[in-house]
Amino acid sequence: MDLKERFLKYVSYDTQSSEESTTFPSTEKQKVLLAALRDEMEALGMTEVSMDQYGYVMGTVPATPGCENAPVIGFIAHVDTSPDMSGKDVKPHVIEEYDGCDIALNGQLTMRVTDFPELEFFKGHTLIHTDGTTLLGADDKAGVAEIMTAAEYLLAHPEIKHGKIRIGFTPDFGIFPVEPEIAVMCEAAAAKFEDAGAIVEPVSFDFKRSAFELAEAWDRMITISGGLGTIEEIKAGGIDLLRDHADDLPDELIYWVEDAYKRGYVDFHDDEVIRTEVFDQVQRAFQDYDLIVSPTCACHPVKNDPNWNTVGPKEICGVKTEPLIGFCLTFFCNFTGNPAASIPAGLSREGFPVGLQLIGNRYGEIDLLAASAAYERVNPWMADYEITKNRTL
Questions:
Q1: Which residue among the candidates 19, 68, 102, 194 is catalytic per the annotation?
Q2: Which residue, 63, 95, 322, is CA-closest to 212?
Q3: What is the residue-averaged pLDDT of the chain?
Q4: Measured between alpha carbons, how far is 28 from 269 in angstroms, rounded to an integer?
Q5: What's the pLDDT score for residue 393?
Q6: 359: helix, strand or coil
Q7: Is residue 80 annotated as part of the catalytic site, yes or no?
Q8: pTM of the full predicted structure?
């Protein structure tokens, strides 16, 4: 099966995702294509082929003889398509040797070169488009088709020397603890620092507690050290917020204030121990590195609550999340006192800004600002803000 045939086969599967779902993957129909990919991997002769309960499909192109100890290379792609438009009953149209003219999608819709001047770059190429009533699904079934076709070729041509190649396909392209698209965008953005002369390497931490536990510890500490005092000061002024104005307060605030009243010094001390654990892990990383880079937030923006009490998600990538701060990777710096900055990593598929967090060493604000400026020099980002400023909401 060649690349075009494979791609046309994959887009025939409806794998539209859902923003409203609480399951993983977000729609069960994604698993139909994922199961087909698993079976195709096995038929091609890949090894270590598997598909787990969440739809993650993995397979291996074995290393060629003599290359068993070469570095392992991984290729990943996602099968889900956007929830914004249907991916069912896709009718792809193939144009061989595109002539550079307008493309009639159907009787009502036409892609005009005046509206899409980039079409001129594809003159003479083969184009595949829909009839305008559905998504095509090239994001990211084109990636899936490319990976599978490359794997088939390598398996058929053992004279091409290579190390072990691991391949993974994911539903909703999700990996803990950060939503998939954000993780990939931030990894690519971090690599830009190499263009500025930096060495970029993965850094690991050995936190003993889950992100949920750390976020709840932060909620407790900030309520005791700040929120509770404010409540008491207002009460001293003659206004008892919890007694007389509870209906005007968010449920989350009431919960944590009431929780704080039940706690004593030992509880606060236990949370200080947690804070110290985080501090030690972060400072240990700065023994080897000058800058720590991470996503700013673990998820895309959430919809505003019509009742003016917007909180984050309770779950990210199938993992329980604390909705007040747990989706935000910045509270670590509040624990540790390290300076941090959020710089643009780019725009998501839906056009939302994605932030890249830079964390500097304690009292290293000047280095942090210099790193932010260096990033902007090699990866100018102002145009992204022009796009978001001028678009119609």
A1: 194
A2: 322
A3: 87
A4: 45
A5: 62
A6: strand
A7: yes
A8: 0.55
